[in-house]
């Protein structure tokens, strides 16, 4: 892992991060300011353990003197002097890695141009342009066949170029819109990312005060406070530590936690996670010079050469696109192991919606391709037979250009059919809908890190929630206590307690709570005091304040450095103990923890007079019955506070924890309450109404848990449900050999509502058990909330992981999909609402889009076959395509959610995307539109008494006849767009329409542009101006759509047995082993094919047939890179869109990236 300094140097120069050094002068100058150079520090950080200690001794003497050389102090940290901080940044760099350059607008335009359909249109347009300028010699063209002569006068022949130019113009429009979309999206993501970067803070000591500063402002020489759950933002040397254990797997791949101590291994590296304990470190390397920064720079430097080797670049891109940020320094190192592990990691399922959409899009695309091919073939054959067989002409050389012009025209018609058939708006709709939801969800306190989590939430059927902080306020307060054999139901007056006992309580709480936990004055006048740090400890400290005593003087007298030994809290011990040395040299151990665990270790208790008396198992049982259970039944968490004296001679063996923390004397037992949040019971009721089961998984004891669950409404009296403890749960789900059996879990989980005293593993087992269960016909979609480092595995395993924004540790946030910025359960309900809304928005869009597609394709196809000319011209088709795809996706995808969404059950994973009701609407409206259009096409000229537009010669002027067809078609789509707002067969389609200004403005805007096109579009749009009467008829037919919609709604869906739903989720059984094991390269290749919109429809059709399912195993997507994928961190979620390519094709490419190299911080599937 250790990179040589020269390697690192090379990387630096590649990033050009430092001020350019004037002939090395600046370098020596900086080194003069500080007693140590950047190079020395870098080489120091590459060593580990004893080697590092040796190096510190050889070069600097000891850590203290290193600290002095860096002009810092171990107790007071740096001064807050801006010039000094600036000097440090100059000398040692800043704590961030420069991001990769964003794509320029031109690059995005170039990417949008890669779209195959557009390329074909461009070629067609250019050929058409070229031929229009070719004048056949003389008038011999008379002999060239039926269609060539006719109503063509000079002026019209001149205008032959217009159609080609118009197609080119519309292509340019599409490209610009696409590129602009990408560009603004990238800009937004970058904005959001920099905002989040600022929010990422870390505790450092400056001028002797602990302050929180943004990670990017950390400099070399800072004294940083590290604690359980932190993700280290820079490299450093440990100055003082308590029981510190670090997970370095991000850099080394070793999963075992590494013990760090000042005398054995003091090196702390950026990107590693603190799993236990606390301490202080001297920051020695930041940004590009930190260990993870070096790896990143190498990745970045390597990238230039990589791009020449296209294939490699694809793989690297992901990794580099994640552009390192201060927070996530881990990712770099993982890339290498990822590459190794990639082969054997199980693939994460693709989000439900994408699976269904991919499948649907492939089917539609195939149909469109077939239709367009048939159209072209029929047109060509018809023309050839008509000209050369029926009229018996021979092919004259001077007629060639004219014939070619005809063929080009047929080709253009074919392409138009294809353009309309392919729903390229689908991916756009998904993207817009998700992006819009994510933006709005920020207001509802949901910070979405992985776009697809948003939509998965709409399908959620189960939520496994933590109790503390999520269902409750996480403001712990001691409300009952048991001291000196007395049970106090409220806070006792200090005079009621024996003074010795009181002194003992004050010391035990002040010393044996992490020094990072404290109570600060409230932010607002009259607010509650702020609890900083561990909430349970804050509750205990608050208890001291209520007893009119203060913890601060005790801590000043015994600062953290003087603590002799600390056994920090972890989920196995469920207790915390601290040893201090008394003035006479003896030792005292203070311990606090869950009462049922700690009381078992007590052999005496402080009685009524403050003297210790024996405490036998019999006394303990009585105490449990009389004190602890009554407290727990009222929903209190009981905590026991105890102590033990040790003599100094012989000194106890502190590493033998079992011998140390035993034979204790109980000082008191306190009952801490964490009140239920006022809005939670209502939120849980909404969940239950929406068909979502809420389960509570907590570390508290069963009585407390049951009491809180009843208050929240998770369990109602008289229901048939289970509440059990972790031990019992484990006993029931394991067989004789101790292995977990799915069928045993299946017997329990459907009724389980509360799992108490559960370990993180239990939580993970439960989540996995529910997800893998096949008892119900629908696979369960599980959401999990968590805040602790230990919740990581469960958060990763769940379909959607919610981490707490306030109480959550970095590790939990890292593993989650959505961060609840206010730690509140009711925000989860909002997420469900948004998720369902995304699903519905996409269904609305589909319902609209497919109606247009069906009608347009059939019209173009039959029209072309019967009249040799499509009634809808290429340019008109493109306009229809634009309003249908781009604008409609905007209009329908931004419908705000309503409470009504929470009244129905979840759709489930296997539910088809297009329900029977939708199918009925699509076909119903399709029939109406086809009848109208064909009536107009074949008898329209008689109805309106105008010239027929059928069988017009090649460059004839636009006819009113065809203009009316085009206009009617567009107006019917517009009114049908209003119909499409409802997908469950509701009657009132205008319901809440003014709540969506985007929708209204798009419909009105489209209508305005349509008027302009018809009245002034002329030759390019093949439109002739219409008079008022004709306009009114077109409008009347359009409004008829709304009335027809009511007719369709009247037909009961249940009678239409013949309809079939479409867009089912991909079936699990369709995947065969060998398809899954398909070679990486193949997948890479497939993915690149899918990446550009309709390449799909042209190439690889056979491949797609055989591998429909491989789509769901695709790994990385190039397009809209991070959009719909589980990302490794909040930031990378935002960053990694730097790689956007045609955004319109997300659906096809966003495969699951669970093992993408770019996803370096991502799923380590447990």
From TrEMBL:
Keywords for the protein's UniProt record, in alphabetical order:
ATP-binding, Calcium, Calcium transport, Calmodulin-binding, Cell membrane, Coiled coil, Ion transport, Magnesium, Membrane, Metal-binding, Nucleotide-binding, Phosphoprotein, Translocase, Transmembrane, Transmembrane helix, Transport
The transmembrane segments are 108-131, 161-180, 369-390, 410-436, 922-940, 998-1018
Question: Calcium as a keyword?
Answer: yes
Q: Name one GO cellular component term.
A: plasma membrane
Q: Where in the cell is it found?
A: Cell membrane; Membrane
Q: Name the EC number(s).
A: 7.2.2.10
One matching Pfam family is E1-E2_ATPase
Annotated GO MF terms: ATP binding; ATP hydrolysis activity; calmodulin binding; metal ion binding; P-type calcium transporter activity; PDZ domain binding
According to its record, how does it sit in the membrane? Multi-pass membrane protein
Q: Which residues form the Cation-transporting P-type ATPase N-terminal domain?
A: 59-133
Task: Please list the GO biological process terms of this entry.
Answer: regulation of cytosolic calcium ion concentration
Locate the region Disordered. 328-348
Which InterPro entries does UniProt cross-reference here? ATP_Ca_trans_C, ATPase_P-typ_cation-transptr_C, ATPase_P-typ_cation-transptr_N, ATPase_P-typ_cyto_dom_N, ATPase_P-typ_P_site, ATPase_P-typ_TM_dom_sf, ATPase_P-typ_transduc_dom_A_sf, ATPase_P-type_domA
Q: Where is the composition biased (Basic and acidic residues)?
A: 335-348
Q: Enumerate the PANTHER family for this protein.
A: CATION TRANSPORTING ATPASE (PTHR24093), PLASMA MEMBRANE CALCIUM-TRANSPORTING ATPASE 3 (PTHR24093:SF284)
Described purpose of this protein according to its UniProt entry = Catalyzes the hydrolysis of ATP coupled with the transport of calcium.
This chain belongs to which protein, by name? Answer: Calcium-transporting ATPase
Organism equals Cyprinus carpio carpio
């Amino acid at each position: 892992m250790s990179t040589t300094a020269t390697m690192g140097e090379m990387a630096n120069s590649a990033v050009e991060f430092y001020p350019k050094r004037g002939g090395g002068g600046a370098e020596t100058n900086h080194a003069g300011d500080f007693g140590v150079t950047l190079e020395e520090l870098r080489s120091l950080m590459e060593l580990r353990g004893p080697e590092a200690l040796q190096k510190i001794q050889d070069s600097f003497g000891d850590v203290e003197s290193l600290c002095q050389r860096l002009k810092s102090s171990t107790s007071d940290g740096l001064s807050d002097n801006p010039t000094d901080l600036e000097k440090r940044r100059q000398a040692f760099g800043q704590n961030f890695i420069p991001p990769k350059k964003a794509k320029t607008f031109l690059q995005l335009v170039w990417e949008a141009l890669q779209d195959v359909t557009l390329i074909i249109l461009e070629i067609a347009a250019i050929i058409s342009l070229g031929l229009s300028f070719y004048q056949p010699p003389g008038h011999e063209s008379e002999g060239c066949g039926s269609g060539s002569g006719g109503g063509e006068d000079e002026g019209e022949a001149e205008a032959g170029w217009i159609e080609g130019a118009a197609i080119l113009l519309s292509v340019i429009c599409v490209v610009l819109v696409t590129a602009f979309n990408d560009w603004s999206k990238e800009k937004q993501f970058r904005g959001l990312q920099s905002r989040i970067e600022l929010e990422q803070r870390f505790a450092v000591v400056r001028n002797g005060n602990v302050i929180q500063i943004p990670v990017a402002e950390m400099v070399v020489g800072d004294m940083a406070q590290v604690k359980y759950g932190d993700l280290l933002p820079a490299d450093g040397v440990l100055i003082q530590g308590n029981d510190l254990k670090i997970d370095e797997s991000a850099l080394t791949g070793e999963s075992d936690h590494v013990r760090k101590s000042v005398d054995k291994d003091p090196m702390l590296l950026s990107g590693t996670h603190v799993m236990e304990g606390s301490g202080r470190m001297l920051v020695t390397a930041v940004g590009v010079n930190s260990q993870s920064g070096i790896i990143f720079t190498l990745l970045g430097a390597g990238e230039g050469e990589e791009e020449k080797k296209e294939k490699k670049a694809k793989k690297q891109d992901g990794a580099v696109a994640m552009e390192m940020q201060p927070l996530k320094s881990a990712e770099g190192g993982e890339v290498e192991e990822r590459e190794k592990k990639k082969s054997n990691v199980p693939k994460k399922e693709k989000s439900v919606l994408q699976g269904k959409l991919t499948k649907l899009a492939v089917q539609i695309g195939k149909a469109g391709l077939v239709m367009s091919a048939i159209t072209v073939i029929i047109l060509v054959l018809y023309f050839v037979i008509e000209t050369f067989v029926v009229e018996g002409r021979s092919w004259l050389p001077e007629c060639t250009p004219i014939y070619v012009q005809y063929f080009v025209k047929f080709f253009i018609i074919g392409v138009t059919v294809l353009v309309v058939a392919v729903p390229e708006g689908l991916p756009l709709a998904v993207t817009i809908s998700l992006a819009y939801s994510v933006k709005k969800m920020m207001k509802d306190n949901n910070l979405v890190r992985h776009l697809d989590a948003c939509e998965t939430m709409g399908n959620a059927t189960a939520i496994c929630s933590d109790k503390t902080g999520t269902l409750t306020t996480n403001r712990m307060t001691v409300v009952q206590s048991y001291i000196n054999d007395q049970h106090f139901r409220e806070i006792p007056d200090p005079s009621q307690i024996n003074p010795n006992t009181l002194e003992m309580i004050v010391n035990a709480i002040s010393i044996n709570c992490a020094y990072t936990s404290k109570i600060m004055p409230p932010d607002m006048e009259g607010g509650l005091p702020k609890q900083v740090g561990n909430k349970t400890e804050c509750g205990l400290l608050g208890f001291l304040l209520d007893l009119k005593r203060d913890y601060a003087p005790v801590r000043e007298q015994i600062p953290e450095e003087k603590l002799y030994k600390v056994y920090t809290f972890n989920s196995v011990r469920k207790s915390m103990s601290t040893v201090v040395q008394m003035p006479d040299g003896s030792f005292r151990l203070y311990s606090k923890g869950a009462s049922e665990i700690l009381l078992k270790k007590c052999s005496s208790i402080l009685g009524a007079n403050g003297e210790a008396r024996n405490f036998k198992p019999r006394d303990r049982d009585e105490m449990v019955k009389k004190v602890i259970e009554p407290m727990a039944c009222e929903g209190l968490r009981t905590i026991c506070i105890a102590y033990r004296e040790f003599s100094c001679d012989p000194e106890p063996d502190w590493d033998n924890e079992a011998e140390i923390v035993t034979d204790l004397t109980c000082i008191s037992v306190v009952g801490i309450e964490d009140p239920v949040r006022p809005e939670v019971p209502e939120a849980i009721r909404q969940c239950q109404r929406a068909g979502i089961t809420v389960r509570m998984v907590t570390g508290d004891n069963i009585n407390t848990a049951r009491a809180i669950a009843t208050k929240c409404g998770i369990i109602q009296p008289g229901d048939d449900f289970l509440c059990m403890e972790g031990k019992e749960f484990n006993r029931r789900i394991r067989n004789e050999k101790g292995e977990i059996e799915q069928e045993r879990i299946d017997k329990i989980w459907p009724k389980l509502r509360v799992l108490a005293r559960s370990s993180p593993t239990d939580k993970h087992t439960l989540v996995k058990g529910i997800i893998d269960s096949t008892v119900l016909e629908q696979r369960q979609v599980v959401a999990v909330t968590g805040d602790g480092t230990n919740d990581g595995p469960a958060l990763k395993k769940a379909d959607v992981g919610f981490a707490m924004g306030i109480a959550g540790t970095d590790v939990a946030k890292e593993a989650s999909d959505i961060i609840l910025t206010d730690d509140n359960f009711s925000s989860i309900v909002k997420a469900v609402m948004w998720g369902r809304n995304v699903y519905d928005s996409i269904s609305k869009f589909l319902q609209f889009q497919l109606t247009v597609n069906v009608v347009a394709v059939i019209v173009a196809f039959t029209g072309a076959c019967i009249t040799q000319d499509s009634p809808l011209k290429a340019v008109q088709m493109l306009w229809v395509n634009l309003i249908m795809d781009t604008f409609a996706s905007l209009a329908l995808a931004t419908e705000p959610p309503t409470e009504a969404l929470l009244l129905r059950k979840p759709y489930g994973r296997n539910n088809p995307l297009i329900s029977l009701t939708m199918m009925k609407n699509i076909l119903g409206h399709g029939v109406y539109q086809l009848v109208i259009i064909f009536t107009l096409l074949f008898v329209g000229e008689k109805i309106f008494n105008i010239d027929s537009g059928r069988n017009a010669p090649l460059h004839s002027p636009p006819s009113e006849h065809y203009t009316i067809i085009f206009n009617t078609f567009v107006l019917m789509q517009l009114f049908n767009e209003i119909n499409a707002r409802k997908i469950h067969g509701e009657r009132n389609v205008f319901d809440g329409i003014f709540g969506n200004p985007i929708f209204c403005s798009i419909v009105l805007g489209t209508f305005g542009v349509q008027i302009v096109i018809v009245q002034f579009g002329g030759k390019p749009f093949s439109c002739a101006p219409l008079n008022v009467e004709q306009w009114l008829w077109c409008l009347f037919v359009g409004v008829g759509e709304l009335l027809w919609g009511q007719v369709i709604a009247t037909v009961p869906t249940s009678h239409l047995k013949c309809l079939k739903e479409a867009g089912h989720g991909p079936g699990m059984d369709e995947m065969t082993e060998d398809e899954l094991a398909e070679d990486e390269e193949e997948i890479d290749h497939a993915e690149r094919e899918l990446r550009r919109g309709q390449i799909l429809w042209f190439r690889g059709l056979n491949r797609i047939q055989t591998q429909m399912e491989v789509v769901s195993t695709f790994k990385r997507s190039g397009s809209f890179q991070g959009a719909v994928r589980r990302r490794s961190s909040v930031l990378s979620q935002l960053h990694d869109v730097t790689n956007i390519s045609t955004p319109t094709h997300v659906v096809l490419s966003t495969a699951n990236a669970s093992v993408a190299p770019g996803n370096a911080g991502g799923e380590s599937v447990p």
